[in-house]
Amino acid sequence: MTRTRLTAARRSRRGFTLIELLVVISIIAVLASLIAPAVQSARRTARKVQCLNNMRQVGLAVIAFASSANGSLPPVVQDVAMTNAQGQAGSMYIGWPVAILPTLDATAILKNIRNNAVYVSGSTTRFQMGTAEQSAGIEAFGCPDDVDSHKVAGGLSYVLNQGFWPDTQWDLANGYNDAALINWNLDGTYGIGSGGGDETMGYSTGVFWPAQIGTSFSVNVPSSLDFVSTGDGTTTTIMLTENIQAGPWHYPSSQNLINSHTRLGYGVRIPTSAGAPTTGLFNATTTAQAAVRGLQTIDSAFVAIDDRWVINKNLGAAIGTTPRPSSQHVSGVNAVMCDGSGKFLNEQLDRMILSKLTSSNGVSFGEATLTYNP
Fold first, then answer.
1. Which of 66, 82, 154, 158 is the Cys-Cys partner for 248 at CB 3.0 to 4.6 Å?
2. What is the per-residue pLDDT across 299-331, written as a single tens digit (0 to 9) for each?
3. pTM confidence score
4. Cβ neighbours of residue 313 under 8 Å, at least 6 residues apart?
5. Which residues of 325-343 are buried (b: 16+ CB within 10 A; e: fewer)?
6. Which string of DSSP letters, residue by residue, matches 140-203?
7. Are 363 and 205 in contact (CB under 8 A)?
8. Rounded to a whole number, what is the distance in angstroms from the first to the last CA of the chain?
């Protein structure tokens, strides 16, 4: 008997139509457009948080330095005697980043700096840092959003609070600051070595100052957290902030310089005339008035002056210039206060508040107490 095999008819698979495919692609594109900004925002936030964590690590290293130095904070720049591995003796100018290496758990780098120090050409007493040590990248010194400094040889994103600067130095590449550079007390005498009221008021505008190097900088610098605590307060005084024009961290050691403060610190730019604050900027016109209200800022005049020192101004400036707070974060900068706490400062922050957050003892010279702490 012949059997007949019945073959089941196969159903053909139905594919997407062109219209359906376009709809699916459109939906995916819309979802991607909605998700991508959120992902980017999350990444930016993570980088900003990591930046603040790095900065707080540096801030804690500064506080630890003070604890091991009888309360004294690291100078912005100082001259340190040392002997290298060859037995040669001399001294080297170092900035605050080098000074805090031991409390930043980077003692090995400091040992290498000392062991491999080389004489400046033509000198048998003056050292500068060797090229190998300059290539060290210290992760804690760099903000992840600062691509020129994060995990980069010599990278430095963070700067110290150096108070109020005269425009004559603030405007310079590799400029410097000192408490006596402005005729604060209006007696006609000012400058390094002048002493008296100018230094006292100058120190009250900031936190960190250079150590005396020969006759280059003032003496008896009250750079300590106790000075801040008994003045404007550690919770309302900036210790560290960001500046994308800062660094490298090995300045001035690698260049045999005693200045370079514009690379290591930030400050409020003060217009001066014949050494004194521009007329009307501060509420004092005589020496006697300055002694009690020399830092009592007149709001209208202060707002009207040049604003190049405010947060994120002139982001395209050259390295080593423009010592003001700046970053690649959206809308502001991170800052660590003198009590070790961290916060974010909006770039729209009132400049009166920024100046008060910078001063360390302004209340002793007529500056109003800061009632708003951003």
1. 154
2. 556 665 678 899 999 999 998 899 999 999 999
3. 0.87
4. 307, 322, 324, 326
5. bbbbbeebbbbbbbbeebe
6. GG--TT-TTTTTSTT---EEEEEEEEEHHHHTSTT----TTSS-TT-SS--STT--THHHHHHH
7. no
8. 99
Q: What are 240-290's pLDDT values in tens digits?
A: 999 999 989 998 887 777 778 999 999 999 988 888 888 667 777 888 888
Task: Provide the residue type at 28 as one letter.
Answer: I
What is the pLDDT at residue 5? 52
Cα dist from 9 to 2, 4, 12, 15, 76, whole Å: 22, 15, 9, 19, 88
**In angstroms, rounded to a whole number, what is the distance separating the alpha carbons of residues 115 and 129?**
10
* Within a domain: 288: yes
Predicted confidence band at 119 (pLDDT cuts at 50, 70, 90)? Answer: very high
Read off the pLDDT band of 12 (50, 70, 90).
Answer: low
Question: Does residue 31 lie within any of the structural domains?
Answer: no
Instruction: Specify if 43 maps to a domain.
Output: no
CA atoms within 13 A on the CB side of 328: 16
Interior angle at CA 176, CA 170 and CA 112, nearest 5: 130
Which of 300, 286, 283, 288 is closest to 367 using CA atoms? 283
Residue by residue, DSSP assigns 85-108 as TTS-EEEEEEEHHHHTTGGGT-HH
For CA atoms 110, 149, 50, 373, give the dihedral sign: positive
CA distance 173 to 158: 17
> In total, how many domains does the chain have?
1
The C-alpha angle with vertex 193 and arms to 187 and 199, in degrees rounded to 5, equals: 60
Give every CB contact of residue 289 below 8 A, 6+ residues apart in sequence: 186, 283
Please state the rounded mean pLDDT for residues 103-107: 95
Residue 78 covered by a domain:
no
Q: Which domain holds residue 313?
A: 138-365
Between 181 and 288, the more confident residue is 181
Q: What is the band of 179 on the pLDDT scale with cuts at 50, 70, 90?
A: confident
| Residue 195 banded pLDDT, cuts 50, 70, 90 | low
Whether 162 contacts 182, CB under 8 Å: no
Residue 62 CA from chain centroid, whole number:
13
